[in-house]
């Protein structure tokens, strides 16, 4: 039995051809993530947030040569990788040391900070997604393709106090490393689920949640709808917006006023605008 008063032996990998690193690269593919039930989280902030909401990594890969020196960068404290590594060791998480070349091969971001973790699958089944309370607020995205947009919506949902985020007919999965990265780790903090549009509509009806869909095909402004009750705010895909099925199921169709030449906003920006109108209304009430 391992003596808990002494640190566990930590593996060091210097070869970029090591099989464990090939397995890490495999987790960039959705099929591998689905088969293994694992995904990747890279970076101090993302791993720190995941730890803070109870996620325990299976393994953390580190390259201390890439750690930032302790100090300040603008308004932010930096150089806390050593502190995070100590927390991971205290929780008996496996630590694997990589050479700089090996780490840079498996890193999926520019300017890596020397921390990469393998964690369990992100997201819950729609049937297991709770929807309690008279002011439950869900963000619904339909067919959104770009991981960066999904991640940005998760950050907004976390900041706005959204109760759940649901992806209908998703093109990507919540465990996509670029979703995790763009969300700054908030994918672990906000309950998130995926399902077909039909399943999502059944879930909304079963939980008596009103559906507000953003679309340019209406004269009703998003500020003219009551968003204080049990509401789901929905945005559609980047190319086509919400489909006819979602629009026909809507309690309200709303648009965001636009004064320029373009007839639509970035989908993550649209979600943020309507979500914060809900926040404003709920604060006023």
TrEMBL record:
PANTHER family: RRNA METHYLTRANSFERASE 3, RRNA METHYLTRANSFERASE 3, MITOCHONDRIAL
Any Gene Ontology biological process: methylation
MRM3-like substrate binding domain: residues covered: 18-117
Superkingdom per UniProt: Bacteria
Name of the protein this chain belongs to: RNA methyltransferase
Entry keyword Amino-acid biosynthesis: no
Pfam families, sorted: MRM3-like_sub_bind (PF22435), SpoU_methylase (PF00588)
GO terms for MF: methyltransferase activity
Occurrences of domain tRNA/rRNA methyltransferase SpoU type (ranges): 137-276
Gene3D superfamilies, per the entry: 3.30.1330.30, 3.40.1280.10
Sorted UniProt keywords: Methyltransferase, Transferase
Similarity-based family: Belongs to the class IV-like SAM-binding methyltransferase superfamily. RNA methyltransferase TrmH family.
């Amino acid at each position: 039995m391992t003596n808990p008063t002494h640190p566990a032996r930590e593996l060091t990998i210097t070869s970029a051809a090591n099989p464990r690193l090939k397995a890490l690269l495999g987790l960039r593919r959705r099929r591998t993530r689905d088969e293994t039930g694992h995904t990747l989280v890279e970076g101090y902030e993302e791993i720190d947030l995941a730890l803070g909401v109870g996620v325990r990594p299976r393994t953390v890969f580190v390259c201390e040569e890439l750690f930032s020196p302790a100090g300040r960068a603008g308004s932010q404290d930096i150089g806390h990788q050593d502190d995070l590594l100590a927390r991971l060791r205290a929780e008996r998480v496996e630590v694997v040391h990589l050479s700089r070349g090996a780490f840079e091969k498996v890193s999926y971001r520019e300017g890596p900070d020397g921390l990469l973790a393998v964690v369990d699958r992100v997201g819950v089944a729609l049937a297991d997604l709770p929807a309690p309370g008279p002011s439950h607020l869900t963000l619904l995205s339909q067919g959104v393709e770009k991981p960066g947009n999904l991640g940005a919506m998760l950050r907004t949902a976390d900041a706005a106090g959204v109760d759940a985020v649901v992806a209908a007919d998703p093109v990507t999965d919540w465990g996509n490393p670029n979703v995790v990265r763009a969300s700054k780790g908030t994918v672990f903090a906000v309950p998130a689920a995926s399902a077909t549009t039909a399943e999502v509509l059944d879930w909304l009806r079963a939980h008596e949640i009103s559906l507000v869909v953003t679309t340019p095909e209406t004269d009703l402004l998003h500020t003219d709808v009551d968003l204080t009750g049990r509401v789901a705010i929905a945005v559609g895909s980047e190319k086509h917006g919400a489909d006819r099925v979602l629009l026909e199921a809507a309690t309200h169709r709303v648009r965001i006023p636009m004064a320029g030449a373009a007839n639509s906003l970035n989908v993550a920006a649209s979600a943020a605008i309507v979500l914060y109108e809900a926040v404003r209304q709920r604060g006023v009430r």
